[in-house]
Amino acid sequence: MNPNEILELMKNRRSIREYTDTPISNEDINMILEAARWCQSGSNKQPWRFIVIKNKNIIEKLAKLAKYGHFVKRAPVVIAVVSNKKVSPKWYIHDSSMAAHQICLMVSALGLGTCWIGSLDRDKGAELLGLSKDEFLTTILPIGHPQKIPKPTPRKPLEKIVSYLD
Ligand SMILES: Cc1cc2nc3c(=O)[nH]c(=O)nc-3n(C[C@H](O)[C@H](O)[C@H](O)COP(=O)(O)O)c2cc1C
């Protein structure tokens, strides 16, 4: 595996908010779910589960719960990333966030697009998806074929974010 290619994948991943109507193949969905499954987690508890939503009615309802995610309604597939507080009381948010990011990277590697949805009415979302009281709706990830790839978003230079203690 070429490290430069991995860095390129990370650099080229963009938040994609506009999707075409082309459906996502089951092969691609399985690759995305495998990427999530192989994520690391605190004490390897794997407190997560993933709900693959293709139902238009549910997708539209989820979109309404996302303050900055009206575009979710246009995605052919949404993956809800769910984490169980009881299984990993300390790390359930960390673990599931990392799994969600693995999804984001694999989506990008497949030439597809997604966008992390942070602002979300999680209580209503949990009710809609039938989550148990121990489960937390970490994020919903709309997935689709990008209509266009946005320009690169800037990053702070290393000099500003790194210090060394030799
Ligand atoms: C924790 C988190 C929450 C986010 N919430 C939203 C959101 O609610 N709506 C949205 O459109 N983008 C959201 N984003 C996407 C960011 O705006 C985006 O990652 C950032 O601007 C950098 O752009 P890039 O992903 O294209 O590199 C979120 C990203 C993260 C990591």
Descriptors for this entry?
binds flavin mononucleotide, 4 strands, NADH Oxidase, four-stranded antiparallel beta sheet, alpha+beta, 166 residues, single chain
Polypeptide structure, described:
There is one protein chain. With 166 residues, the chain is α+β, with helices and mostly antiparallel strands. It has one domain: 3-Layer(aba) Sandwich (NADH Oxidase), CATH 3.40.109.10. It contains six helices and four strands; from the N terminus they run ααβαβαβαβα. It has helices at 3-12, 26-37, 56-64, 92-109, 122-129, 158-161, and strands at 48-53, 77-84, 113-114, 135-144. It is globular, with a radius of gyration of 16 Å. Bound molecules: flavin mononucleotide. Residues 14-15, 17, 68-69, 115-119, 153 line the site of flavin mononucleotide.
Question: Mind telling me the C-alpha Rg?
Answer: 16 Å
Order of helices and strands: HHEHEHEHEH
CATH architectural designation: 3-Layer(aba) Sandwich
CATH superfamily: NADH Oxidase
Number of helices: 6
Biggest β-sheet strands, sense, barrel: 4 strands, antiparallel
Q: What are the segments in which pLDDT stays under 50 over at least 5 consecutive residues?
A: none
